[in-house]
Design goal:
The protein is mainly α and 494 residues long. The chain has a 3-stranded mixed sheet with strand order 1-3-2, with helices on both faces. It is built from 20 helices and 3 strands. The longest helix has 28 residues.
């Protein structure tokens, strides 16, 4: 039967992607430096081989044959997504795919070195190559409105500049005044003792405890260290995430772990009966980010969380100041314009995303040169945040995304914030007061709700359809804006 042959081919294509994911994870964690060249070769070969199988005319014939007949919902979902992938893939030459994959592998190594030395010049030639190749990709795929739209669609299907521009304008119009109000607040914030150090080993123990309590299954996953925290759902039963340690700031590691564990829970909760197929994948990056941002911020940055977590924290760090949960909550919710996106508070975080969005628009819609990226970034950052960027690692070198060729990814973080707030509203109506659940220390109800409503559904619906199905309303920024305004006006007594 054509459906059997079709699914066999689809499963094998997704196995190729899983292998690439595994090699990519290893490249960012344990691979020795001298393995970079051969690793790049292997990844380039796998990408080209997978691409050629996707472009096989026989696969196209199978798609057409199935599309001409009635299908059940699961098969129809797989056919629809594979048709999209096939139509795109046939526009890209195999040697181009191989070249792009190799360039990404080389760029990642260069970026790690450049970031460590805070020297953009060590990365600029690789970035120039990736941007050039990305522009070629845009030409191959075809532009309907703006070149950047092609990249945005890669990460959140259907989203364009015309969708994001008014969304960001609306967010900025309410977040900037809120930031100004907070800046003028007279609330005194606690500060970590400057002399106090938090060992990486103790941080790790505490963070593992939090991740386990969230429901992450460490028999089906692991936590490691990398330059930039990330999560990789490699294949069923093997979900991995990373974090990084700062002995002066244990909360940087904690919230990275909660963020990546949120991603990991989604991967571990996907329907195993649909593994290695579109139907068994997450529905979108925006929805994926909603899971991480919900756990990181809307669960983790609350007094309720610290009422249960603070005693665990003091077990690892008995010399920690004798603060109560409200004090720690205020500490971890400090609103302060600063350099680093992944450590930004909820008020300024989306401004970080907007900056990257505007930078990528300049690069692809206005052909901003690579040489001008640091200068342009720094000026925009100073204009928006009122802070002069002191070094490249605090500016345009801080994120891993461009070294991976992941242009168009950043806006999904903002979508994740919006989706998370809307989901939290509905979860509260169905489960009762979320703070009470969190403070109990038994977070399984939250995990089960997310698993039943989001994780187990895979990609049977689009992101917007899923949000509307769960919440009864189309995606909207209002729940997030209401959430963040209410929360921070309460914390800062505005």
């Amino acid at each position: 039967m054509s459906s059997v042959e079709f699914m066999k081919r689809v499963n094998n294509l997704y196995r190729f992607s899983a292998l690439l994911g595994h090699l990519g994870w290893d490249q960012k964690t344990f691979m020795p430096a001298k393995g970079a060249e051969s690793r790049g070769e292997m990844m380039a070969w796998l990408a080209a081989e997978g691409h050629s199988r996707l472009c096989d005319p026989e696969f196209g014939n199978l798609l057409s044959e199935l599309e001409a007949n009635d299908m059940d919902n699961d098969l129809a979902s797989n056919v629809k997504e594979m048709r999209r992938q096939y139509n795109q893939a046939v526009k890209l030459p195999s040697d181009f795919v191989s070249q792009f994959t190799r360039a990404r592998s080389d760029a990642l190594i260069a970026w790690e070195q450049a970031r460590a030395k805070s020297d953009f010049s060590l990365f600029s030639s690789h970035l120039k190559t990736l941007i050039s190749l990305t522009r070629q990709k845009i030409e191959y795929l075809g532009v309907q409105d703006t070149p950047y739209d092609v990249l945005l669609d890669d990460y959140e299907m259907g989203m364009t500049v015309a969708d994001y521009d008014p969304l960001f304008v609306g967010l900025k119009s309410r977040l900037v005044p809120l930031l100004q109000e907070i800046t003028n607040s007279e609330v005194k914030l606690p500060k970590l003792p400057k002399e106090m150090l938090f060992s990486a080993d103790e941080q790790e123990e505490f963070c593992l405890r939090i991740s386990r309590n969230m429901g992450f299954d460490f028999e089906a996953g692991r936590m490691d260290q990398s330059t930039h925290p990330f999560c990789a759902g490699i294949w069923p039963g093997d979900t991995r995430f990373t974090t990084r340690f700062d002995e002066k700031d244990p909360f940087s590691c904690l919230y990275a772990v909660m963020h990546e564990s949120g991603h990991g829970l989604y991967e571990q909760g996907l329907p195993k009966e649909h593994s290695f197929s579109p139907r068994g994948q997450s529905v979108s990056l925006g929805i994926h980010e909603s899971q991480s941002r919900l756990w990181e911020n809307q669960i983790g940055r609350t007094t309720a969380f610290w009422r249960i977590a603070l005693p665990w924290f003091k077990e690892e760090f008995p010399d920690f100041p004798d603060w109560d949960a409200k004090t720690v909550d205020l500490l971890v919710n400090e609103v302060k314009p600063d350099y680093i996106r992944v450590e930004a508070d909820e008020v300024t975080y989306n401004l970080h995303i907007m900056l990257r969005y505007e930078m990528e628009k300049l690069i692809f819609n206005q052909e901003l040169s690579v040489e001008k990226i640091p200068e342009t970034w720094n000026q925009m950052f100073e204009d928006w945040f009122g802070i002069e960027v002191d070094k490249d690692s605090n500016g345009c070198l801080q994120d891993i995304h461009w070294s991976m060729g992941a242009f168009g990814y950043f806006p999904t973080y903002t979508l994740g914030n919006l989706y998370a707030a809307q989901l939290l509203e509905t979860m509260s109506k169905q489960l009762g007061d979320i703070d009470t659940l969190v403070e109990s220390g038994n977070w399984s109800g939250i995990q089960v709700w997310l698993r039943e409503n989001i994780h187990q559904k895979g990609s049977q619906s689009s992101a917007t359809e899923l949000i509307e199905e769960i919440t009864g309303s189309a995606p909207s920024p209002e729940p997030f804006l209401n959430y963040v305004e209410n929360k921070y006006r309460r914390l800062y007594k505005l």
